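In practice, a research group might receive sequence data for several interacting partners and want a quick structural hypothesis before committing to experiments. The following worked case mirrors that situation: the sequences arrive first, and a predicted assembly follows.
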Amino acid sequence: MDSQARQAIREAAGPENFSQSASDRLLYSGDATNRSRPPAAVVRAVDTWQVSRVLAACSAHGVPLTPRGAGSGLTGGAVPSIGGVLLDLSGLDRIVRIDPADQVAVVEPGVVTAELAAAAARRGMFYPPDPASVNFCTVGGNVANNAGGLKAVKYGVTRDYVLGLTAVLASGQVFRTGRGTIKTVVGYDLTRLLVGSEGTLAVLTELTLRLLPLPEAKATVSALFSDLDHAARAVQDILASGVRPTALEFMDAASLAAVEAYAGLGVGGAAAMVLTEVDGPPEVVDRQGGLLAGILERAGAYRVDRAADAAQSEQLWRARRAMGPAILKVARGKLNEDIVVPLGSLAEMVARIGGVSRERGVQIPSFGHAGDGNLHVNVMFDPDDPTAEAAAHQAVSDVFAHCLALGGSLSGEHGVGLTKLGYVGAELDPAALRLMHGIKRLFDPAGILNPGKTLPALEDPA
Amino acid sequence: MSDAIREALAAAAACVGCGACMGVCPVYRAGRREDLVARGKLRVLAALGQGLSPDREALELLGRCLLCGRCQANCPNLVPAREGLLAGRRALAEAVGAPLVKRLLLTRALPRPERLDALARAGRLAVPALSGLHLRLAGDLEPPQPASRFFLDDAPRVVHGPKGAPRLGLFVGCVANYLRPSLARRAVELLSRRYTVVIPKAQGCCGLPAMAAGLAEPAQDLARRHAEIFGAARIDRLVTTCGSCAYALAKEAPALVPTPGARELAAKVVEISQVLAEAPELVRGLAAGGPPVALHHPCHLSVDLKVTAEPAAVLAAAGAELAPMEGADQCCGGGGLFMVAEPELSRGIMGPRLEAFRQSGAGVLATSCSGCRLQWSRGLTGGAPVVHPIELITPR
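A structural hypothesis for the assembly, expressed as tokens:
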């Protein structure tokens, strides 16, 4: 960044919101991946018009800009990988309005997802998307990455709750998409295009989100299986039963062994665990909890537990929640992927992951959102052993190849960012990718917005 | 490489940067900046290990922590973030010879010498230099007046309970000793109904302010001294009226001085509400009356020592009227040195607590920590009294 650019961006941001100190550049250099690079400058967003001025200045001087919420992403999306300006949006954290009559919330992008959910709950309303990082990730980051979560099987993903956006183009042009209505079919759906665009098309500065009424009660049922195919059949049977669970989680033998070694919950030796939850009026969830327990038993579970209250429910969730730290005890290095396969291919995918694990000699505990066909595949390695690390990367390539062969997708909820960039070319139709590049040029002609991410380069740039 | 540097860098290396600490850190939630949270501080510690110069900004950044311990209590990967930060402060104190405590005294106290003068005029420079009180009072707009006689000046060495009663050591702590001797006297009065209370005169500060400032040596001296004098006193348990003292004595002292004596003493530490909750008949019906009481749970007591039910149980047994307060277990933003060094953030954290107190309808705030007590006293400007729960219990 030359001194003219520096001067212009500093002035646009307001000097008090602009920093080039060594500490700030370091602090905003990374996200929840192990990738990092210090930006040339950190700008703290204060409102839409300031963001607009900063983007205009960046465009005028050809300085790249990386937007960042909480920096809790898992693909390097918020890493300023080619330097430039890091725009910290976490301070834009105002909940503008929660409207139970319209069933919408209007919020700034830096609001923490759990705080939005809590504010909605105080008005008897429900914001369902709950990625694992719900207590610290921001809604803006969720929208930019189209985050999923545990409840997606019933309630869908972040995209399903975004009704409208205020966004800023690379040029500094501020625009709105969508309305605060549940439906609209007027014009191209730019709102849905921006959801999941990973900060490469525009910077989001205000979000209009859909809310639902808060469910009254929930019931939790968990089951252990000695046969993976039986667990897969239980998942299939639940999805076909007419009972729509709010969560339908799966843990494989390797992850259960890790949890057992870590927390000793009596789940070791099982081939799979299925954990499911329903919500609704108490008399309905009571009946549905019974139905789910019956399905799990008939599918061949050797142990089924049904929670009678919130404390017991939390007990059943313990194995699932202990997963993160438990697998880090397997090895310190982890490549964390989140493939998604067609619902009918879940058991086949888990079996193939087992095969890759044996062939490459790496441990791959897998667990995830079975109800969505979404698996968190954790390829473990010793970071001090270069051979092990290379084998881990090979294993990821193998898993991705199997996933695509089964008709799956390389990411269900984390996004592409930097870490998956080298792989997604294999999934995307070349003509579709060409269109995506055209869209990118239209939104961001100078290519300053979060460059080098999300879209792989065209093999034949015509 | 010193032990402190090794410990700090090990914590930094164990952090995978997931960000879970952001969801629980009171300082981050008040300021929403990466430098305020454990993840950011560990990143800076790692960079210091790799040669980043420990400039003023880096030092200040490492100071912006309440030491409440929520980051490590909630870390999915069990990273000892607070212990790493404390080790980092010790390492910096070794490396640059400008420990935080000195810097704080220089930048905060010296421009306003009248704060220390107030102590001097009162003839109270006898307060040991290592008492955290110096720092706290230096940052206060209106320093509380030290008592005219300190508790330990006049306290008996032993107050005998019934024949054959178990022996409790009383750890007085600086606030009770210098500012509020009546609190220590109340503790003795209540405890001696059932226990023999031993009060060694040579006891001092719990060492937490020194630990927090990266001053390992004086903190170690204090830990050794306490292990020795309370070891000689042949006590069954060591009772404090302050959650922060309890945490320092139970958790940090044995880590700094890993001797059998220090560990043995650490295992005996309890806050007075734990003792009284075991024997509710000691306080039954002794509540002083007055307006409803809101109870605030100090971080060091609730997060570190998992003591939350006991103070409420004691007040309930005494017959006090408790007013439920939202976020009673959330940090008040005191944090010892923090409220002095970062007054703005400290007030930002306190804001929602004051609002919750107003909403509760209580007329009194009770808390079992001397740091929280000072913070609440500064915050509750409307005149609602701030007390230790046992000050609401009047032995008859």
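Before designing any experiment, note the following. The interface with chain A takes residues 16-24, 32-35, 40, 43-44, 47, 52-53, 55, 57-58, 61, 76-78 of chain B (CB under 8 Å). Strands of chain B lie at 158-159, 167-171, 196-198, 237-240, 269-271, 293-296, 364-367, 386-387.
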